[in-house]
């Protein structure tokens, strides 16, 4: 098992390095120049000398290889650099928003799991009845409804039926849990619907698959009640693919938040990404993309580990 | 004579039904999706005839008008007819959705076949590259590509937007097609083709390609749905289709975001349009998968 973990960890390094190179090259192909944009936005007189000075200060006058080297050196020492737009350390900018985005993502995950596993199981047990059909329509609709639109509809419904809209200022959960939850539960619902739809479909199809297995027939043949067959034998064996989907979708959730945060006016990572990618704030975009990719690869790694832990055959491939 | 005729088992030629008829009878839900898709196609091709108003005409007399007989789905903050903008928006969604899915799936399929056919180092290199592309959430990748490429509008269509939407599809299609093609590569007829001295290109396109058509078609339909969603999201963020072109995602952003609490119809109907379109393609894609090859996992 240890050898497997080490092997998988080593495989992550080239992928992450590839991500770094790709993002670096992509960003340098971008049209426009942050220095000019920024100086124009500040309204100062833009002369060549100021531009050159600012470029030198941001390290943009170095060769591409030099810039890449500086970035890698920083990453290796845990220094993400200074935002080219705000001038504040990137790590600070990210940390203040990570909390919010992570909380919404976690709440959406819990919501989705709590909804999806029972719904998917019920759907599989009552296959082809009206219960199954209703759940399947609910799930397939969840894949079609854009989460940002669902967010707008949620706000609209709250406003029209309760004449109330969620609070606009963010307060951490440990300071005022009620205020915090009444603001963040709605975006969690909006992104959680799609998430639960994916997980419901997965639960349904794996349980249906497992129910075909010989050991289910054996369990029934020895006279176990159907409830026990489903709970002890079918569900337990069907959970692995479901956990995988939940894990993978969790990583994608950060992406789903990119648009939904806009609707709820949440100052999270997604909003930060949209703002900085259009400005060409290289240091910030690079750091954000690396963070998201690393997180994604890490979740993949954990999912693989879970597989290996549950299924010894995987380790020896 | 007559008795012999009556006792003889009549020979009935088995009716060969057209595959489309078979699909409709075996997959009613998929057929329903197909009907929706055809309706959307017809509406967007004949938008000039179907739409009651011009989608761009500004009418300050009837700003934010509620749904009525004159404006079935109301008007927006510029007095433009919402129904007409939805119909023209279908054109944008379908053009962007179909073209980007075609580009992404085709590129992915070719890369997947090359990866499987050559194997060894080529396969390793391609797979690592695909792994890198797979480590981004779809929208993050598309947003970055949009920001890098900027706009390139040809004939009213932003080609760079289509490229940006298709990029995230490539690694996914490549993976599925590769695994299908790997099995094909071991078939005796591929060895035979090699022994006959055919070129690699000929073997890939003439002998392997016909066998990966099923996964290709399934992925293509599924990705049209994703592309429509992605176009709506990007346009909503102001990084996709731009005013005054009618786009569903765009109808949900800008002034709609400011006025939707007074005029809910401005955002309700475009959202329904997006959901219906994605729903239709998902339904059709799901049934197509069940019908062609139930083992394919997307």
Mean pLDDT of chain B: 83
Are there runs of chain B of 5+ residues with pLDDT below 50, and where?
Answer: none
Mean pLDDT of chain A: 82
The coarse silhouette of chain B is flat
Largest interface: chains, residues each: A-B, 47 and 41 residues
| Structural class by secondary-structure content of chain B | mainly alpha
Oligomeric composition of the shown chains: heterodimer
Count up the helices of chain B.
15
As for the CATH topology of the domain at 98-310 in chain A, it is MetI-like fold
Q: How does this structure look, described?
A:
- The complex is a heterodimer of chains A (317) and B (298).
- Chain A is mainly alpha-helical and 317 residues long.
- Chain A has helices spanning 2-28, 34-42, 48-58, 64-76, 90-125, 130-144, 147-162, 177-210, 214-221, 226-263, 269-279, 282-310.
- In chain A, α6 crosses α8 (177-210) and α10 crosses α11.
- Chain A starts with a helix and ends in a 7-residue tail after the last helix.
- Chain B is an all-alpha fold.
- A two-stranded antiparallel ribbon of chain B has the order 1-2.
- In chain B, α7 (138-149) runs antiparallel to α8.
- The model of chain B has no long low-confidence stretch (mean pLDDT 83).
- At the A-B interface, α1, α6, α7, α10 and α11 of A face α6, α7, α12 and α15 of B.
